[in-house]
Amino acid sequence: MKVTKLCARQVLDSRGNPTIEVEAYFNSVKTVAIVPSGASTGKYEALELRDGKKEYLGKSVMKAVDNVNKVIAKKIVGMEFLDQKAVDDTLIALDGTKNKSKLGANAILGVSMAVCRLAAQVKQKQLYEYIGEITGTDPKKFTIPVPFSNIINGGKHAGSSLKIQEFMITPVYAKNFKEAVQMCAEVYQTLKKLIEEKYGKSATNVGDEGGFAPQLSTPEQALDLLTDAIKKAGYSGKVKIAIDAAASEFYKEGYYVMDKQYTKDEMIAYYLRLLKTYSIVTVEDVFDQDDFDSWAKFTEKASKSKVRVIGDDLTVSNTERIQMAVDKKLCSALLLKVNQIGTVTEAINAAKMAYKAGWIVMVSHRSGETEDTFIADLAVGLGCGHIKLGAPCRTERVAKYNQLLRIEENGIKYAKW
To answer: Are residue 180 and residue 266 in the same domain, yes or no?
Structure first.
């Protein structure tokens, strides 16, 4: 059971930017993986290697492609592929840097994902079943995750003056994933009508993750629209709200600059007011990735209302950053992005560390997505119960919803909130 061939090529992601696709072979058996890419990225993420030349305005990934074809393949071809940890450890050692800057996290992750798929296929297992096997997840704990749908885009995902990056809905009280998808789609379409009536048809243009990007200036405007759409769609009480502030993007010289300038304590108070006013169940990256005092103060207060505080740029799916956040009590949940860390094994280790701390884990897409549905199976295999997918719009987002609909037909139960 050894890898017989490994190769890569440059393809496009959902934003029309290059990314890397990797093929892994065992004789005539072939599997493919495509690596996602983020727009709003934490400074502690593993390095996504790009060429920086004139092609694709500096965003081509031919260095990463060459690293797979000319460097990694020489080491991985001939390796036993049923040992995911051994493959990933080899990739990490071959790179030899802390942030995978030599070979590129995108090159390494493409290989890791493709090899994981190859093992699942050769063993005649569903990908989520194999991920569960290497994770040590009891199959009885497999769950279809509750989706978090980003249906109003701001920040780097849109061209509006709205600083908070994502306003999401989540059907926490759906009976099953099939109903959850229906709820998300109906609220999304209802929101589209509301935005068109209030701001005109051009305001229903969508951002990177499929959410609408009307010219809003305050979070309250977005939250009011979501609340109205949920009510008009008939799902009050069943569909809740979540936000991803991506606050590192609007943190300047000790202040948070949105519609006006906020001190750290003013920002804490502002978020707490939002929690009292709106039906919000999770908040993500509400402070800068190094503003530890604000994270700790807010998390202590938010936990009293049972709101989950999620670390993303703060934790970057990295066990060192996660342990630091656990020790300092900075947040209560982990956003898990495989390309933040670079291998399947490291992503699994990050999830396990979060579980051990009593956190929830939410598997997440990126703004630059592809047709690859790996994260859908990852969420089921980890049994984490939460997944961030973007809006029920655009094929690269919908592909993940559709994969989870298929998996649900295998008798996997919808997660309980």
So the answer is: yes
Domain membership flag for residue 350: yes
pTM over 0.85: yes
Kindly list the catalytic residues.
Answer: 209, 337
pLDDT over 90 (residue 112):
yes
Confirm whether 55 is domain-assigned. Answer: yes
pLDDT for 159 beyond 70: no
Is 276 in the same domain as 378?
yes
Average pLDDT, the chain: 96
- Could you tell me the residue range of the domain that residue 343 belongs to? 139-414
If pLDDT is split at 50, 70 and 90, which confidence band does 161 have?
confident
If asked whether residues 115 and 153 sit together in one domain, one would say: no
What long-range pairs does 117-125 form, CB within 8 A, spacing at least 24? 117/24, 117/31, 117/32, 117/33, 117/374, 118/3, 118/24, 118/25, 118/26, 118/29, 118/31, 118/81, 119/1, 119/81, 119/82, 119/84, 121/29, 121/31, 122/1, 122/26, 122/29, 122/81, 122/82, 123/82
Task: Return the pLDDT at 43.
Answer: 84
